[in-house]
Amino acid sequence: MAAADPSVTAPSAPARKRRGLALPSGGLPKNVNRALVVAALVFAVVLPLFFDPSSGFINDCVLALAYVVMALGLNVVVGFAGLLDLGYVAFYAVGAYSVGWFASTFYSDADFHVGVTSFVEQLPGVHLNFFIVVFLAMFLCALAGMLIGLPTLRLRGDYIAIVTLAFGEIIYRFAVNGDEIHLFGKNYPLTAGQQGIGPLDKPKLPFMKEPLSALQLRPWYWIALGMVVIALLAVVAVRDSRLGRAWIAIREDEIAAASMGVPLVKTKLLAYAMGAALGGMAGSFLGFFATTVNANSFKFSFSIFVLSMIILGGLGSIWGVVLGAVALTFINYSLIPDVLNGVPGKIGLDFQLDQLSFGIFGFLLVIGMVLKPEGLLPERRRKIELTEGIGADEALEAPRT
Amino acid sequence: MAFLEVDDIHTYYGNIEALKGVSLKVEEGEIVTLIGSNGAGKSTTLRSISGLTPIRTGAIRFEGQDISKTAPQKIVALGISQSPEGRKCFQRMTVRENLDLGAYLRSDKPGIAEDMDRIFDLFPRLKEREKQKAGTMSGGEQQMLAIGRALMSKPRLLLLDEPSMGIAPILVDRIYETVVEINKQGMTILLVEQNANYALGVSNRGYVLETGAVALSDASENLRTNPDVQKAYLGT
Predict the structure, then answer these.
(1) Residue A16 sits at the chain B interface (C-beta within 8 Å)
(2) Which residues contact B100 (CB under 8 A, 6 or more apart)?
(3) Is the minimum CB–CB distance between B142 and chain A shorter than 8 Å?
(4) pTM attached to this predicted model
């Protein structure tokens, strides 16, 4: 490797600096940075007021925010801890099915209601309050995350990817065939297969008279935004903590991390658990938002979709991941199906553009990797890795005296 | 009771028996060295002591306590720290961040700061490079960092794996001076080295490993003058 001149080291920030939610632009003073973050938040809060409450744009915004939470979760596992998880759809599934199980008439033999409207109280089935369902989903996903993580603990790199890929597929098969799986008796199937579970209860917030509806999307938007803020704060706090440093240490060198006393098993499982919990939070929200849970939503392509977001945005970089998630959501749900869908027809080709969605994502990733391999808003460390190729030949480096 | 006692350990990589009954002792305050050729099992012995590659049979006792089934992080907490083979510095972290990770299991901030200063005194070069990424430093500097990082856990037994590997001779001299200095301050050291000249020069006692077993053990002075050792390992 080209010996780097030590004198040209980037002027690094004070040691032990907490990066917080600083934007990755680096050079900006702290106050400017803070002001930018606050401005972005204010902009995000007031944005829906300028659009029709049932408009397609707000609908896409809600999805984008939910996907931001998803992507932040996957970023903990892949970006921070360096464990390539290709089965992230599992947590979307468990999160969404939590809504099916605990907030619908699906288990109509049961009669269990906690914190729901008087209308829902008259319905048969298990009906829990929106927030309880979200917490349950997060908890179940964290458990599932650790279960999926366990067999990968001794594996590295590509092998983790293969095992998690298989788990994602197993979960999908369970979802599809779940109508024939009865764990707690004949009337309690695991899923409704491809028929789907629905309708799901409409969430009702404590300070609102009516439950949320598909015609008034602003409250959905604000709930999703709240989730994004919670997820951002949690992810930033953990990244800057001891645990966050342990994840990066494991990503850099597992043996060295273990020699320093980083407990590998616990640290990796916590990464899986946290990533999964965020996936469950977003998954349950998407379940409520879609008003039905259908097994067909839980395909492998979903994992790749979320993975593309974090790779495009910049693995490990929090703002990059946010940007990647928003960008890909709008490309997938708005740009391709609404804006550009007819283009091939207009130039005389016999297909619609949304049939090519994944081809387009692949193309974008390739373009991204060529033009900006570290992602749109790269993480500091990752940037070094890709631009200098450090670490490939550490032992053979020519000694300098 | 020896400070560290390795008692007839057998360690496997899959089906391959890397250690075929290694026994050795380290007393408090000593520098003990393990020499031997490539593949003799030197590094595996250190990895077994650290718990990184658990032994299959035998026993490892640290101050009388059996640690052969103990998890690596608990072994670090008990006071055994390793500077691994090939240094394994966190390449994309700064020198300071690397040292911070060495203190991963500690929470006494003043003590950590004090030890950090002590390491910067031992290796002034690291102080100069404090904010530099480890991966941009020379092999010798990274070796200093690896030793410093191992010291940050405040060990009572320091395991050093091949500190001279791939390093310019002038820096090896510096590193070995520091190893002696650390030992004088009271640190017990178990040193694995292919470069037997250096190792036997600084150590009190030595073990010669051959194909996974101890072939010879004696005071370092005697090993240096032993004709067999000279022929096989000292290149004279």
Answers:
(1) yes
(2) A16, A245, B112, B152
(3) yes
(4) 0.86
